[in-house]
Amino acid sequence: MNRMKKFMALFLAVVLIAQTGFAASAQESASPAPSVQSEVSADNETETEPQAETGTTEQQPENSKDETTGETTEAGQDGEDAAGEAEGEQPGNPSEGTGTEEDGQAPPADQDQNQDQDQNQEQDQNQNQGQDQEQQQPSNAAGDGEGTEVGEPTEEEKAEADGTEALDASDALLEEELETLSALDENTTIIYVNDDGQEEVAAGTEENPYVTIADALNALADIKISDGAPNPETKDVEYTIMVMPGTYARFEVPQHMLNVTIQGVSDENGDKPVIQTLMENDTLDFGTMDTGGVRVGGAGSITFDNLKFETGTNTDYPFFPATIQDQDGNYGITYENEPITVQNCEFDGPGKEYKGVYGVAMARNTWSVKDCTFTGYHNAIEMMADNNYVGHVEVTGNTITDCEFGVHGYYGMQMAQDMETYDNIFVLENNVFEGDSSQNWAMINTLSSYNGNSTMKVQVQGNTFASAMMSTLDVLDEYVLVDIEANNTWNEKSYLVDAHYFIDTGETSVKWYSTYSGADDEEGYTRSQWVLSGDTEYGTEAQREAIKNWLESEDHQWDNPMEVAIPSEDGNGVESFTSAKKFIQRVERPAGNLTVRKTVNSANEADKAKEFNFRVELSYPTATEDGIDYDVNGTYYKEFADSVEFTVVKSDGTEQTIVNGGQVSISDGESFTVKNIPAGSKYTVTELGAGKYDVTVDGVASTISEGTISSSEDTETEFVNTQKQTEWDTSKSKTATNLDSNYESQVTLSLPAADVKPAVDIVMVIDVSSSMKDVDIQEVKNAANVLCDQLAEKTNVETNIGIVTFDKTAHKLTDGLVSVDAAREAINSITASEDTNMVAGLMAGKEMLDAGTATEKHLVVMSDGIPIYWMENGEATSKTLISYAKDGVTELGRMPAGTEPEGSNNAMTVMSMEEILSATDWSTDSNEWKQISDTGENINQDECRYTNIQKASYMTAKYLQDNILGQYNVKMVAFGTDKYEGNIVYQYGENFCDWVGEQEGVSYYKISKPGFGGEEGELSNVFESIANEVIHLLDAGSRVEDYMGYVENDYNFDFVNELDKIKLTVGGAELPAVQIDSNTYGFGASNGSSDGKTYPFVVTYVKGNGAEEEHFVWNINVPVTIDSAVQLTYTVRLNNPKTETGSYGKYDKDGSQGYEGLYTNNSATLFPVDSKGNEGASEEFNKPTVSYTVVDHPATINITKKVQNSSGAATNVNATFYAAVFTDPQFTNRFGDVVELKLNGTSQVTVSVTVEAPADGSSRSYYVTETDKNGNVITGGESFGYQIGIEGSMVTVSESAPTGSVTITNKQVASGNQGGGSNGGGSTGGGSSSGSGSSSSQTVTSAQTGDNTNLLLPIAVVVIAAAALTVCLVVYRRKRS
Predict the structure, then answer these.
(1) Any residues with CB less than 8 A from the CB of 1078 and at least 6 apart, and which?
(2) What percent of the chain has pLDDT over 90?
(3) Which has more pLDDT, 640 or 255?
(4) Which helix (H) or strand (E) holds 616?
(5) How far apart are CA 908 and CA 1112, in angstroms?
(6) In principle, which of 301, 709, 1107, 1343 could form an S-S bond with 681, CB 3.0–4.6 Å?
(7) What digits encode the pLDDT tens for the residues 579-627?
(8) Between β-strands 1230-1242 and 634-635, what pairing exists: parallel, antiparallel or unpaired?
(9) Which residues pair with 382 in a beta bridge?
(10) Cβ contacts of 699 within 8 Å, gap of 6 or more
């Protein structure tokens, strides 16, 4: 059958030749064919230079000037405008090799003229292209072989017919490959080429193939071309040149050649036949239009299939170096309706650094490149068509990698109106473009309608871009057939650009709209930013200035489209884009995340539930951050715009969007993550309004976290809040007596602390603006006096008051903090004024409070909250209204903005405090409000964005947040904010006061003015409540949990659960006690309630396991004030004292020394409730320690302390003295602990001390003297307040005489500066006290103790010597008796 087919094919060919008179052509077939041009269909588009139309014999000028750029172009270039859109090389890449469009080179003028002359002829030919389009395309890329229908001649028969023999067995693999090639219809004639053939017998048959592809084409030219035109008898006959495996030289397709397929046959390894182009050893010469590769010119319906093109590095050719170059029209010949098709081919380039080397270069309007691969070309697929438009182009299914330009180029003519012939669509579908990820402009793909003409429609879909750009230039929106961004895949470093020149309006500018689509990955998409390169080689100064201005403008937003006008000197979009893309760069950064965590250390659930606010600020990265060089040969001009949005994901899964400077709120145990921040960005996270909490950030005391975003791992920071030491830390105490002979200690809990007189500092900051005139100001003065009266009654509290008023500025009416009486005088001098500058008043009040020494600091602010001034650089500041004439230039006058424009336009929308505080552009808001006087038109609303009230509200709130809230107890009194209901100005005031009242630690009082819903005296009632709140310590609901001292295998203290061992006093008066049950005790009068709060105070004992679980709970069911201390005293007993001889523990009465061991209580914790019923953070009491001594032979020394007045009479005192027992007369070796001698309204007290007697029956002497609480010996005198007399200072004991006594008498000094029994020795909390002796009602002041100056040393020596002599005489007499 195969032989028969070959025979019939040969027979038909012979008949055809005979009929058409081509015998002569057959004889000339051995001679070389004339130089021709052919159209080549490129699989991927690359950026190349325009080609010129010229005859084959026309000599090209060596150089010509580009009319738009003035740059010199090489001879032989096409007539396309070199200033047209041409994608540029990467910054820093040298311009090598043959010049391209980007080099600014233009074609010679005569080439353009030739093209213009042939234009009409080309259009006539193109009209028929649509009708013949299906015939022009290759039959079937998949193919079914050669065809073997029944009745066809066998291979043997065909061999006999054409004089050849059938393939032998050695050609079996090749025969199999041939049978799987593209389907060829019965009209297709096959010509074979094999580089292993023999030239002398070449006949184009399978057995005697041509040796070169050029030979086959030359032979075919004799058949298909006649008299310089397509042979009408054979032009529609499809011929296939079957190229067998091997390596072949380049070739050119003769002019007028139509309907030819050059089909490669793969070998047994699947390798395609190789065609070499641009080789160094190439000796072929195709004339002035030689490109160094395969050339197609003045031919059509040419298909390249299943070939591999190897492109060398020789660029020394007269025309643009290209592997396949379509030069249709350059010889005055065009077959535009006869397409070029390139399919299933491989293109192996020399490297993208060889500038201007193209893979496939096209000039005609109809062609296709399908299912090909391109690697290593500067331009993979390029079209250069100044004088053409798109008929129908398809670039589909290709893979283009590591090329500078993928599909690139332009068309310059208006689209044809005959839509029946052409659809004018450039189809770019299902391709893969993958550039070098190390470059910013890795691969550029551009479809351009040159000179603003509508030259094409584009259908770009299904493509995948990675490190690649896709741009459409001057393609009208209606001609973009699908949404390019939505219908393609954009991976890392990929983006879309659309540029236009608006030819309709004649505007010489380009609108450049750019959208970035980032690649999704585990950390989100990569952020990208436009920047201006420092390379000034490209573009004009005007173009660079336009880009710079846009980058510095508010329109420049991170990740948002770039839309900027770029001036065009030549009035076309391509020119501007070509220049601008050189100095506009897209910088991409890996994205990182920032996670902020919150921990609150508190046993109080209210603290745990509280939301804490954080402000997140981000700054644009510098050129090099995070180990990555982001510099683009220049400078960055813009940091993050305020409108740049970031996604925040909280730990509970909720999301929100913030802009730079936005706020996020979270509670204890929660976190939030700011997603996709460019690596290298600087971040600042600030906790706002920390208030009563001490804050640490990553272990360091601060409220601010700063750092740099990393791309390699999430950046994390943790804010830990611990409630600050409040007034309870200095208004509570715990003391314990040392163990007595029964190993018992009396422990006292005091609220407030027993040894410190409470003190409070209060500053009243009062608004005296014009809204406080007349009756209002008198109400204010009355109320302030009521507060003073209430505090004056609290004699147990030291009160200091300051008075500040504010109008436009602040006025200190008192000289700092003064007495109640001095404050009253200042209050009575208050008068009303005008203007409101609350910031000034707050600053003055803060200054007074900071100078005070009290632990309780209160700021009372009274206002209607309508601020119109604030402080800047120490000066009162507000916005200024500047009036202009109609020309907008002539200034007519200036005045403070005050409450305008709200005061004149009550219909304006009120900006809430939340909106005011969330705005982040206050620093750039102008304080000059410019207005046309006649019309009221604002002429600088872009600079002056907020009204004066809005800005004053922000500045005042900001000062409160940064300097007041959380640092002082704030009492906010909103007086008359509702005076004019519905008035927008007063609404701002009410909103401001309400916001202050909502802040942590603020007590809020809101009342109406008399005559406007309020009554006279209501403000005074509020200030009375404030006075009570000031002295308030704890409210009902507070409690103390006290755990007994216990250490396993060491010691164990038990609570003595007996009514007579528990006592509670309020203000020094003991409350009646009731045992409710075996473990519960009530104190005070019962109110008979059934809510568990029958008694003011209740103590409940919990034995637990009798060890670490043993504790009691003290419930406080009534308020506790600082002027009336509450004390609970109970007894603990050591139940397992040691029996071995020795001293155990060290006595520390109030836990101030921090000793370890023998704690009476392991812990005592206060859980406070404030006056609003809010639970505060838990507070720990100090832990006292006790001691005891175990001896084998105990003896006792009874130490008696007596106190006398200056006349020698006994006098009662409330005071504590100390003594110590020593083993030497020099009082250097102390035995045991210091002994506390406490007198509670008595004149004497005796304390027994256990010492040790010798075991051998002998005696031992001990020496007793007065000391301070630390055991330092003190002497009497005026500085101490007492003269000290010691009777029996030396005590001698033995087994037979185990008891001794010492009496220490303190006689008050007659100067009247007598001490009240204090010898604390300067130690903290050393028992310093004062009181009145009950017998004489004498006032006793505190005495100085522990005076160790050199002046007293001689006195001490004399006293000790006298005492020693007395002891010796007594001992001597006893022995004598």
Answers:
(1) 1057
(2) 42
(3) 255
(4) strand 612-619
(5) 62
(6) 709
(7) 666 556 555 566 789 999 999 998 677 788 888 889 898 876 554 443 4
(8) unpaired
(9) 361, 408
(10) none
